[in-house]
Write a structure and sequence with these properties.
CATH architecture of chain A: Alpha-Beta Complex
Distance between the termini of chain A: 46 Å
Strand content of chain B: 15-25%
CATH class of the largest domain in chain B: Alpha Beta
CATH superfamily of the largest domain in chain B: 2-enoyl-CoA Hydratase, Chain A, domain 1
Largest sheet of chain A: 8 strands, mixed
CATH architecture of the largest domain in chain B: Alpha-Beta Complex
Number of domains of chain A: 1
Number of strands of chain A: 11
CATH topology of chain A: 2-enoyl-CoA Hydratase, Chain A, domain 1
Structural class of chain A: alpha/beta
Shape of chain A: globular
Helix content of chain B: 40-55%
Oligomer: heterodimer
Radius of gyration of chain A: 20 Å
Number of helices of chain B: 14
């Protein structure tokens, strides 16, 4: 809290904070979680939430990411009409329906995926993007269905399909319905392949479990953001199973590149250009570079 | 072989113990107690039936993991002939947690693939408790491709706690191995008949379970995460596993009513482990029926129908966003 905020009478303070979304951090300043440099929030934002000091890529909200990635003109959302239900009447310490409504209140999203059609440097695409802030970006029926609707839009219009992942895995509260989303999403990718339409995945921090173990590595090109945690089982589960210390940098993007699991690591600030380049190369189109 | 009794089976265990004692006494007794033994046996049978008629999901999970439950190779022995086991992923190793090969089903050539657990400690370790590493899934994929090449139907048997969470498994691409199998199974040009015979543990199970017919044995389970895993994440305590099992819907009956599986195959009274042969016979019948339903389809029809099934998974509502 800044000294100015401390001086403000409580009434003003409340009205100011209430207006803000809960999950958006407050204040003018922000500390980089990696190098601990204290940064101007506006500097960080103008740098696509990449720390200007150490290059650490902070997590992004789905819509922010799509904003940064897609050209400003001619984009529209696909599959927003698909909304979650509670097929198992699931209840742990809280009801699934309660968890859903508080996630909606916190994020302003209806579920953990936003799909948009648009263009990247004038190359038309459909992009499906996970919203990690919504129940850990977990994949349930809605995520699966929106993904499929996005892929089908790409099929119908003969466009490349891109998926940006940020997820803890399958959504436990939908039980086996969630597991089946792995089969469903991966199956639709076979159709893109049959029509020779490119499918690119961008794995961001984190990409784990059921999403990692379905379509994430089925991209024609698999890209990761620097330093992202990517894997099947979580590091804690592995550590408990094998009872030894995990190697340095285990399950990070750089580790995966070294092991041959991904094609490349791309800095967020170069992403538009690199994606446009890859897509035009795969579609045998002239380069869009000036 | 002596039956191992689960916790909730203690009343049966006590009765069986009594019967055993009487049999022992009978050998050197002048009094004929065979009538008494028969009476107790009938009682034990009735008690087993009664107990198994109202198992909770968590108890069913215990039965699905029973140490004497028939595993893939037991069914291979009872159901198939001429099994030729094929080994290895041609890249790294032969994963013994997944077995597979060519065989005959009612005389017809086919490919069999299944998770395999071990019976004794040594075999359990060799088979890694039925938890495959990437090379296991890649072996399975190789066998599926082989089946496709020669136009053979594929039978898969699912019985795993899950894919192995290990350092080497991650380094060699556990995620990619599973995902790639899902991809290959979605467009495989031959019939895929999948049966959960024990534990259907998450992605590690699904990696050989995408097909044209999904069946489950009566006391098998199929879930997105183990009840213990779910409980420790959502309830912050693995002790709540029975509640998690209840609410997640992991049993054949629940999953059938949710439309997630096609058929339940009944088990002998007291579970498959009490009578391997009888279990194998009903499984064989079910496999035959399942195959008949898809065997006449052309490859194109088969894939189209499979895709339609896969696209139908999921529950949601449609409305215009506010």
């Amino acid at each position: 809290m800044s000294w100015l905020q401390k001086l403000l009478p409580p009434k003003i303070k409340r009205s100011e904070t209430a207006a803000r979304n809960k999950s958006i951090p407050e204040g003018l300043w922000s500390k980089c979680p990696s190098c601990e440099a204290v940064l101007y929030r506006s500097d960080l934002e103008s740098n696509q939430s990449v720390c200007p000091k150490c290059g650490h890529h902070q997590r992004l909200r789905a819509r922010t990411r799509l904003d940064l990635l897609l050209d400003a003109e001619g984009r529209f959302e696909i599959g927003a009409e698909v909304m979650p239900v509670d097929p198992l009447k699931f209840k742990d310490s809280r009801r699934y329906t309660e968890r859903l409504s508080s996630a909606v209140a916190d994020t302003g999203e209806a579920d953990a995926m936003v799909v948009m059609q648009g263009a990247i440097q004038t190359v038309p695409v459909v992009v499906a993007c996970f919203e990690f802030e919504f129940l850990g970006g977990s994949m349930g029926s809605v995520v699966g269905e929106r993904f499929v609707r996005g892929a089908r839009a790409a099929l119908e219009q003969r466009l490349p399909f891109i998926c940006i992942t940020a997820t803890g895995g399958a959504r436990m509260q939908e039980g086996l319905f969630s597991l089946m989303q792995m089969a469903k999403t991966t199956a639709v990718i076979t159709q893109l392949a049959q029509r020779k339409l490119p499918f690119i995945t961008l794995l961001t921090d984190p990409t784990m479990g059921g999403v990692s173990a379905s379509f994430a590595f089925m991209g024609d090109v698999v890209i990761a953001e620097p330093g992202a945690l990517i894997g099947f089982a979580g590091p804690r589960v592995i550590e408990q199973t094998v009872r030894e210390k995990l190697p340095e940098g285990f399950q990070r993007s750089e580790f995966l590149l070294e092991k041959g699991a991904i094609d490349m690591i791309v800095d967020r600030r170069e992403l538009r250009e690199r994606l446009a380049d890859l897509l035009t190369l795969m579609c045998r189109q002239p380069s869009v570079k000036a | 072989m002596k039956t191992t009794f689960l916790d909730f089976e203690q009343p049966i265990a006590e009765l069986e113990g009594k019967i055993e004692q009487l049999r022992f006494v009978q050998d050197d007794s002048a009094v004929d107690i065979s009538e008494e033994i028969a009476r107790l046996e009938a009682k034990s049978q009735a008690l087993t039936k009664e107990l198994y008629a109202k198992l909770t999901p968590w108890q069913i999970a215990q039965v699905a993991r029973h140490p004497q439950r028939p595993y893939t190779l037991d069914y291979v022995q009872h159901i198939f002939t001429g099994f030729e086991e094929l080994h290895g992923d041609r890249a790294f190793a032969d994963d013994k947690a997944i077995v597979g090969g060519l065989a005959r089903f009612n005389g017809q050539s086919c490919v069999v693939i299944g998770h395999q657990k071990g019976r004794d400690t040594k075999e359990k370790i060799a088979r890694n408790f039925g938890m495959p590493r990437p090379e296991g899934y890649r072996k399975a994929m190789r066998l599926m491709k082989l089946a496709e090449k020669f136009g053979l139907p594929v039978f898969t048997f699912v019985d795993t706690p899950g894919a192995y969470p290990g350092i080497g498994a991650e380094e060699r691409g556990q995620s990619e191995a599973i995902g790639h199998n899902l991809y290959v199974m979605a467009e495989l040009k031959v019939p895929l008949i999948c049966t959960v015979i024990g534990e259907g543990g998450s992605g590690g199970a699904l990696a050989i379970a995408v097909g044209d017919q999904t069946m489950m044995l009566q006391y098998s389970t199929y879930s997105v995460i183990s009840p213990e895993g779910c409980a420790s994440i959502l309830w912050k305590s693995a002790e709540k596993a029975s509640e998690a099992a209840e609410t997640m819907g992991i049993t054949a009956a629940r999953l059938k009513s949710l439309g997630l599986i096609d058929k339940i195959i009944n088990e002998p009274v007291g579970g498959a482990h009490r009578d391997h042969r009888a279990m194998a016979q009903s499984l064989k019948r079910a496999l035959g029926e399942a195959l008949r339903q898809v065997d006449s389809l052309s490859p194109a029809e088969l894939i189209e129908q499979r895709l339609e099934r896969l696209m139908g998974y999921g529950r949601f509502k449609e409305q215009q966003a506010a």
